[in-house]
Design a protein that fits this description.
The chain has no helices and nine strands. It is an all-beta fold. It has one domain (23-71, 80-122): Immunoglobulin-like. The strands form two sheets. The chain has a five-stranded mixed β-sheet with strand order 1-2-7-6-5, with no helix packed on it. The chain is elongated and about 80 Å long. The two termini are 35 Å apart. The relative contact order is 0.24.
């Protein structure tokens, strides 16, 4: 397996100068990216985000994923808080090797799966030798 210069990331808050209409942190969701002969698959961890509050846009070469997590009201005073609820935002630049018309996404149990099929020209194929 060759090194693709991808770095592991801890859950981190997105640093942006843009103002938000919600007073919650915006996180960069952790992702795993898998490659097969026919597609790239992006699996993103977005706890608290439902399919109804998920927005995936493709504009030119930019695939943008936005998710809004439902805030939870706690009863009593907080003694320890390690998990924080917020929104999620991540953006990827797609190459011409991706067939944009066949991209599919599913959401289950806070895990987003986006399948990016490879364009026919980018798929490996066996060449038959004629005699």
């Amino acid at each position: 397996m060759e090194d693709k210069d991808l770095q592991l990331q801890e859950k981190k808050e997105l640093q942006t100068k843009a103002e938000s209409t919600r007073d919650v942190p915006v996180f960069v969701p952790a992702v795993d990216i898998y490659e097969s002969e026919s597609a790239l698959t992006v699996v993103a961890d977005m706890p608290g985000v439902s399919a109804d509050s998920l927005d995936i846009d493709l504009d030119n070469d930019q695939l943008t994923i936005r998710g809004t997590a439902a805030t939870q009201e706690s009863e009593g005073s907080v003694l320890l808080q390690e998990y924080s609820v917020g929104d999620y935002y991540r953006q990827f630049t797609l190459s011409d090797a991706i067939d944009r018309s066949k991209i599919e996404a599913t959401m289950k149990d806070g895990v987003l799966k986006v399948v990016l099929p490879k364009a026919e020209a980018a798929r490996p194929r066996k060449i038959t030798v004629r005699t």
